[in-house]
Every structure is written in structure tokens, then in C-alpha cells.
Amino acid sequence: MPTFTVLGDDDPFLHVSLRKGESISCESNAMVMMEDTLDLAGRMQGGFLQAVMRRMANGESFFQQQIRASRGDGDCLLSPTLPGALEVLDVGSVQYCVSDDAYVASSDGVAVTAQMQNIGTALFGGTGGFFIGRSSGSGKLVVSGFGSVFTLDITPAKSVLIDNGHVVAWDSALHHELSVSTNQSQGLLGNLVNSVTSGEGIVLKFSGIGKVIVCSRNRSGFLAWLSAKLMPNRS
């Protein structure tokens, strides 16, 4: 299996070592450097429909990159789209759901496909619209978070509320639902007022047993700022 190593603390590289015949998938334009024993090609993982759904789910490009060790062992360097940390996840007995723009790379035994959410979470949760990414298979999955990343352990005795803009990925066995407030004692109107005055907006409540990977910076706010910079209003 390819070896994934995170290099550096601030805005790290992802270093991947492949043996001859091995391959990885990664987000379009993720490749920074690769040795000449490796080949790079574009592909639609899972076919046309899944490519469209992943585009809607995670903001991924229509085509992914595939890097294959065709002529011998070789190394490559990858980098995520957003500035921030990387997390290498073991996929197999545990599968993960992946938020917008968080997918970076995976070993060839892992697929990330699109899964439809319920309408409430889709409209208000901010975790991929009507679709979220979900892993399957066995191997390694690499995700990125804006800023630093931290892993929370959820247990039946400790449910948590997380600002949706800080959620990177989570154990697919966890239950998650949206809320408009972190104050559980208020009614609907009070929750709406508190949501506005506290500045938290929508939060996600996770319960069950599993892990949630969060990032220190709000990805949604950064992407909105970046979009405004790249496409200013023209009047």
C-alpha cells in the first residue's frame, strides 16, 4: 500500500511513496512534484454521474488525478487547495463522511462517493448541500482542514455541538443533526435570536460513537471571502 506522510506543521506537503504497480487518486491540481517513474492521468472516478455528484458534494473538480508507479518505485508531493493541516485516516472497519473541499487523496482501494442528505441538513447544514462525500473500501484517506486540525472522540455519554464551518470529516456511524443554537433550554424563537446574537449560526450535533475531525478556521467564511476577491461585484 502507498505510504502517506505529512511533511511540515504549517501548510504541509503530503509525501507519498509508491511501489511499482501501486496508484493513488487525488484532487485535481494537487500534484506538486513527482519522480519520473510515476505517471499522471486524469480520470472520472466511478463514472460520469458520480463525478457530477462529487462536484456537488465536496467541490471537487470533475476529473481527479491518478498517479501510478508505472516504471518502478517513486515518490510524489501533493498539496491541498486550502491553507492548513492534513489528516491521514485509516478506512476499512471505519468509514468517513467528508465535508466540502476537504478531500485531498486516497489509496486506490478507497473510493469517495456522493451520498444524499435529508433536506433539512442539506439546506441549512453547510456540509455539502444535498450531497456529502462518503468513503468506502479499505486503505488510506487524506483530508485537509483550514488552519490546524483536531480529532474529537464522541461517546454516548458525550455528544458535542460543532460549528458547521469547522467540520472536516466524521465517522459515518455517528448520528448528526443541525441546530440553530448552543442553548438547549430555549424555545424556537429564543434559539433563533441567540443564533443571530451569538454569531454561531448553524451548528451540528454529533452523537453516538466515533471521531469527528475539526479545523481551527472557518472554511465557509474563508471560501466566501475568496470568492468575493476572485469575482467582485461589477456594477
TrEMBL record:
Full protein name: TIGR00266 family protein
Listed Pfam families: AIM24
PANTHER family to which the protein is assigned, alphabetical: ALTERED INHERITANCE OF MITOCHONDRIA PROTEIN 24, MITOCHONDRIAL (PTHR43657:SF1), TRYPTOPHAN RNA-BINDING ATTENUATOR PROTEIN-LIKE PROTEIN (PTHR43657)
Species classification: Bacteria, Pseudomonadati, Pseudomonadota, Betaproteobacteria, Burkholderiales
Domain of life: Bacteria
UniProt xrefs under NCBIfam families: TIGR00266 family protein (TIGR00266)
Species this chain originates from: Candidatus Symbiobacter mobilis CR
